[in-house]
Amino acid sequence: MGLYLPSIIAGKLKGFGKEKIDWNAVKTKCIGLGDPYCEFKLVPGEISELKSSLEKDSSVAERVHERVMNRLMGFFVDGNPLVQRPTLGSEVHFHVVWHVMGFPYEAGERYQMALRMGGAKAGREVGEHMLGSGIEGDDAVKRVLHLLEYCKVGEVSMDHNIKIKENIESSYAWTMKTKPTEPSCYFITGFLNGFFSAVKNQHVKETKCIAMGDPYCEWEFR
Q: Closest Cα to residue 24, out of 16, 14, 34?
């Protein structure tokens, strides 16, 4: 499933070389599919496997999705770590996340809607899986908010509203010259809506956003 890293390295090789050779990259192994490591092949010039490597059928995404959901439920039910890396530890860097979260300001409304819909689908499925495992109501809410803090999405708190300080989804806006004029946490808003609709039959609306200059991001229940 990895497209970003192989392609950017291929582009850098082309830029570094004295001769302008078109490099191509094909990913051959993926941790998301159960391989012990991610692996890709870099080739100068044409490569016969390139087209087939970019044409993924739905079963590939479904296999990755199933592994991610199983890992999430292991975290919620048994307290297992989300990521296990014996050498580097259980934390994940946010470099690629910053790229994904930063694009909405540049890519426009269709990309923003895709993030909202993807977040809503993910949140609803997480909520439904938790209900299916016997985790309901306030207990489910407590565990999903713990997930956000565990993943270092931000400093999360909840009373009548949900607040996230140092929110990773908004942090990219600090580097932008033109600041958003409306709340811009598209994925997290979608995720919270999907989750709360599943476990509490509630919806949320983002009313404050770090990207707009507020001290934290905040969601009200509707």
A: 14
